[in-house]
Amino acid sequence: MSSIKESPQARTGASQGLSASRRAYNTGMRALIYIAAAIVVVLLVFLLGYILYRGLPNLTWEFLTSEESVVRDVQGIGPAILNTLYVILATLVVVLPLGVGAAIYLTEYAKNRKLVAAIEFATETLAGIPSIIYALVGVLIFAESLALGKTLIAGALTLVIMTLPTVIRTTQESLKTVPQSYREGSLGLGSGKWHMIRTVVLPSSIDGIVTGCILSIGRIVGESAVLLYTVGMSMSMQDFFRNGLESFFSASGSTLSVALYVYAKVRADFDLAFSVAVVLIVITLVINLASSLVGRKLKKN
Amino acid sequence: MSEQSLRNPSAPAGRKGRNGGARPLESVMQMIFFICGFIAIAFVLVITIYLIISGLPAIREIGLVDFLFGQEWASTAEEPKFGILPLILTSVYGTAGAILIGVPIGFLMAVFLSKVAPRRVAAVVRPVVDLLAGIPSIVYGLVGLMVLVPFIRETFHTAAGESLLAAIVVLAVMILPSIISVSETALNAVPKEYEEASLALGATDIETYFRISAPAAKSGIAAAVVLGVGRAIGEAMAIMMVAGNVANMPDLLSSVRFLTTGIAVELAYSSGLQRQALFSIGLVLFLFIMCINVILNVFLKRDKEG
Questions:
Q1: Which of A154, B47, B161, B216 could form a disulfide with A142 if both were Cys (CB 3.0 to 4.6 A apart)?
Q2: Does B136 touch chain A (CB under 8 A)?
Q3: Could you give the ipTM of this predicted complex?
Q4: Smallest CA–CA distance from A104 into chain B, residue
């Protein structure tokens, strides 16, 4: 980098071919670029290859679907997959209305510029807080102050705060792309503001809301610090059908990322940990593909 | 056009609702949306207040100077000591190390993707870099634990490979994707005319990338660096698996504890003053992050304006 400033003579050589120092600079910097690219590409291939190599052999249908049992000598992450789904659902049910509502307020209602700036600053702050602080907050507020204990619902509520900025931002982006004439048309035909939002604005911005959902799911699936301290490490199956729905509020159990931590750090069962890692990477891949697909559709419209 | 026409059409509808009372639903919905909008502020306030309330008692009991500059963290000893200087220094060194490794590679990779690489190569590499960004941090920790830690143990003949060095490498890899994508966006946004003018004046392509494009994109690249700092200083789970978690003063090959892992390691079983001290660490970390966010906002805003 520093060599950029080091060769003022480069300019004088510009008229007649390349001077030796300029040629050296060119070759050197080009080599650096290719070296960096090679490092990154090798790293990518190595990371993915190593995880697949270690994780795939143990990845059987039985491992994915069954509950672990010492008696039958079965290892399984079925409960962890279900718990991850429960946490995703519970989080989205709460965060979607809140986030979409906030975005609607910011783009359709808010008139006070200072308030808008304050809300946007708050959103950015929430997006920048690291997950270990959210873990503290989740333990303090939801598990202890609200006496929810280490439950799926305490984890989900903490994740609501964490994913709120994502939902607000993506929804806001897509609300901004809804043409002003749509709104004027609807209002001109005599509909009220809420009616206009419900029938015109929201349907046209559904892509952005879906993107927000997908990105939030990505964060939830990848989150480990918050969930480790709020949902507990139990690996057994939940049975809401037998115990009734209210048992959801007292249920606790590990999600996929927590299961990975348990396998790697608590039980030192590294091959199984890598199998969970493969599952997580496949989910990440699906999420990335889905969000770029939705993004492309958004651009087309 | 934007501001005025955005607000104006709403006026008649709003008035009708308020005056005639014909549409009570309208004002109810407006209220609901206002509450939704305000909730982000409420969350930030609640988090800040909770952290301050739970973080201050321990600092008051230990003493601010002893807490921040005490060189020993022995929370479970018979005479517990709560000095977080080793944790702060480890976080600073670890972040600096990750930035020193990650930023040059990430920046050069961004130049590669944005300017040098053939379109088809970039189209293949970019999604994989995005995939790297999405991989859960705990997976990085796992790979670090299984590959990097044994490698360091054997190369440097230390008793345990879990060290600051391992944490730095893991952090550097983790911040790469965000540095690459943010710098690449900044480089792509440089007006074509700048580069064409430079080439027309006889500069080579490489000179143009580094002396014209990079300076023109400098605030975006600075934002990438600050973003990397924020991610590195806030990461907990991945480095918890590779850093060894003993609260030593930082040394490249010794087992260390970061601010984040300081919380993470003891959060599950702590109680009393020890637990309160964890919240104090959280408060310190929160202040660090807030400063970084403010700096990041300054860079991003300057980017938008300039």
A1: A154
A2: yes
A3: 0.84
A4: B33
- Helix (H, G, I), strand (E, B), or coil: what is residue B142? helix
CB atoms within 10 A of CB B288: 20
CA distances from B100 to A244, B4, B91, B97, B106 (A): 54, 47, 14, 5, 10
Measured between CA atoms, the residue of chain B closest to residue A225 is: B237
- Under an 8 A CB cutoff, do A128 and B293 touch? yes
Which helix H or strand E contains B73, and what residues bound it? strand B73-74
Identify the burial level of A287 via C-beta atoms within 10 angstroms of its C-beta, where 0-12 means exposed, 13-18 middle and 19 or more buried. buried
Do A223 and B136 contact (CB within 8 A), yes or no?
Answer: yes
Tokens matching residue A96: 């979607």
Give percent above pLDDT 70 in chain B: 92
Q: Which residues numbered 55-94 in A keep a CB inside 8 Å of some CB on B?
A: none
CA A142 to the chain's CA centroid: 21
Asked if the Cβ–Cβ distance from A288 to B130 is below 8 Å, we say yes
10-residue mean pLDDT series, chain A (301 residues): 41 59 91 94 92 90 80 80 90 94 91 89 89 90 84 91 93 88 89 87 87 90 88 74 68 86 87 92 90 76 58
Euclidean distance between CA atoms A104 and A93, whole angstroms: 17
What pLDDT sits at residue A276?
A: 92
Cβ–Cβ of B40/A102 closer than 8 Å?
A: yes
- Say whether residue B99 is in contact with chain A using an 8 A CB cutoff: no
Do A278 and A260 meet the contact criterion of CB atoms below 8 Å apart? no
For B81, the 3-state DSSP assignment is strand
Chain A residues 173-212 with a CB less than 8 Å from chain B = 180, 183-184, 187-188, 191-194, 196-197
Q: Count other Cβ atoms within 10 Å, centred on residue B15.
A: 10
pTM above 0.95, yes or no: no
